[in-house]
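Summary for the funding panel

The consortium committed to producing paired sequence-structure records for every protein in the target list. Below we show the first two records in order, beginning with the earlier of the two.
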Amino acid sequence: MPHIPSDINLSRRPLEQFPVVVQEGHFGRAAERLGMSQPPLSQSIQRLERAVGARLLDQGPGGVRPTAAGKAFAADVRRLLDLQSAAVARARRVAGGLEGEVRVGYASLLSHLYLPTMLRRVAEGLPGLRVQLRHGSSAEVADRVRSGALDLGFLRDPARLSGDLVDRVVATERIGAAVPCGHRAAEAEEIGLAELRDEDFVLPDPAALPVLAEQVRFACHQEGFTPRGTATADDLSGLFSYVAAGLCVSLLPEGLRHLAVTGVRFVPLRGNAGYLDTAVHAVHRPDADAAVTRLLELLTGP
């Protein structure tokens, strides 16, 4: 078994020096190129040969030339140095949020409204960043972010959020009236909420959508009536479905009008009360890495 020297030194500096010596074929020219004197360079290469345990250079009358082992070692060293530089650069890109993977959770119909913009901007601005999408209710998304199963979550209903998550509003929408296409108000430019007092409503389930449920209840109360709920749904898709079936009206975020659901018309509500505003929230842990910050910057940027 060959002897393994105990003074192994394969630090970056001698590895960088050796290919230069091979290319120049002369210690003096290599030293000049490296910005050092010849004796320390010769000593460094001698230590490298001892560390490797093989003669890497042959001395000739006009300089040095690599042995067979030296040629192979020089080629491998170049690849090693390239990989080392690439590894450092990639670590810096990941630390800076330019590369890696971000697990994103979203609730209900947000995937149709905001995620396409985010994914397009990531593809254009951060091509090294991979986004994995996971769907769930607002409560599920928040819990998964809290546990670390998700890096970032988008939801409409922040009722169950606690102080251990960072909450950032990324969009604000008005609540509007969603009515069937054949409804008397379907073609109106706007409508007063009180004009719907005699309608059947599909209402958000307070257990699943507590914030929206409270907004609907309070908005109707401000107009002097209690909505006649003939059905409930635990997500926005369910609310849409009842309206599209022509069975009820509902109050929903106006951003959903861009989904062009067959059988549903959105009519703006008259008035500027703040309780008719609804927000889209982005939540993440306080120790989220730089990629999360970069992603949010892309989403909220111009």
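The next record, for a separate protein in the list, is shown here:
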Amino acid sequence: MTKTSYSSGDAIADRRAGYARMLAADGEIAAAAELMQQALELVPEWAAGWDVLGDYYDKLGDVAGAISAWRHLEALDDAGVFGARLKLAVHGAGPAGEGTAVSYVEALFDQYAPKFERALVGKLGYRVPEMLDELLAQEMALLGIVRFERGLDLGCGTGLMGERLRGKVDHLEGVDVSAAMIAETARKGIYDRLDKVELVAALHGRRADADLMTAADVFIYCGALQPVLAAVVPALQPGGMIAFSLEAHDGEEAVFLRPSLRYAHGVAATRDALVVAGLDILRFETVVLRLDRGAPINGILVIARKPPLEVTAANDGAGAGGDVAA
């Protein structure tokens, strides 16, 4: 069963779940939860139903009920499509785990793809690609860069970042974990190459051939930043640049999982991670990324650079034939 497949396979259970959705839409969450519980008594192995029930309980403030529902979900959803592990972690009922919850992110954006731009740009005031592009253009001017040879847009989505990059890059690649997102952006003809692949897997074993990488609102699904940067740096040419965004918090934690199931990164910890990865920080700005339920989401925009190769004289220092001080 995929995340978008709602049917339980039982007509009566589906009917009760349908009524529950209507009640929830009208704000009758307690009644909706009761009907979903009745539906699940008929089909106790219906993963999507347990996901919905957990969300209803969560909206009611019944944390114990939500955790119980998501425990059932976790046991039924081996692939992790519904993000039960993440939901349990947010409520202190388990660890978030390491790295990206790939199956959850893939299912989320496969479902979201057809309405992605309308919702994100039209309703939430999303401007991250525009803001990153502005910072990138400023750094290009300062460094005397006219164009990039090879660009790699990580988590390219529907091509919002790629549209900004196209005029700056000779050969532009996009990668995304969601096939539906890849299909949406393929229609636009922005990229020279598109691949459906998780970003760390896309970078693993790659030659150091990219002189530009971008990741607009991508690392917010990846957890700890250090492993991501450890994959990014070897794939950059010396002197190559990376531009990316993060959701931010001002606490001491390097990273924590928000109720939105996105990760927020600490400002100081992010700076440290960039230095440890061997990157030179060119721009580091805190901004409002977008709105979420009417509230601003604070974030970080980063432009960083892999140090260029240093050219040294062949006979520098005590080289062959040189004089050595006694």
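Regarding this second record: The first strand starts at residue 148 and ends at 154. Residues 311-326 have pLDDT under 50 and may be disordered.
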